[in-house]
Write a structure and sequence with these properties.
Blueprint lengths: L9 H12 L4 H8 L3 H11 L7 H8 L16 H4 L13 E2 L8 E2 L12 H7 L8
Antiparallel strand pairs: 1-2
Helix pairs in contact: 2-3
């Protein structure tokens, strides 16, 4: 009978420990092992693995220095995983660039105009109406 993916064998526990030690995120470990991130978090807690800083706290601490460019994919990832690497910020322009069905998709990332989701250049494009062209 094939091994069940939800059973925590000694081999799978060792793999979890190795991936944890390499610094992969809980979500990445879950993807790698074929289980939910909650299963990884719970098992890591029960195994007494070192705690991780919250990804929310990490991004808040890095906010002033954050790089606005979308990271270049180093290898072909499934689209749903590649899109997780896009930097999201309410203080950066959210004008889309590229085909959202490809890993090359990104957002502008320039500073926004107060009260708008876009930078100055993209606000001009987004908020132009027909009356302005007369």
């Amino acid at each position: 009978m094939a091994e069940e993916t939800n059973s925590w064998t000694e081999d799978r526990l060792e793999k979890l420990r190795d991936l944890w030690a390499k610094g992969l995120s809980i979500s990445q470990i879950g993807e790698e092992m074929g289980v939910t991130r909650n299963a990884i978090a719970g098992k890591a807690h029960r195994l007494g693995l070192p705690k991780r800083q919250s990804p929310i706290a990490k991004s808040a601490a890095k906010a002033p220095q954050e790089d606005t460019a979308a990271p270049e994919p180093t290898r072909e990832l499934p689209l749903r995983l590649a899109l997780r690497k896009i930097q999201w910020s309410r203080s950066k322009c959210m004008w889309p660039s590229g085909d959202p069905k490809t890993v090359a998709f990104s957002f502008c990332g320039n500073p926004i105009l107060p009260g708008k989701p876009y930078c100055d250049d993209h606000c001009i494009q987004a908020y132009t109406n027909n009356r302005d062209s007369s």
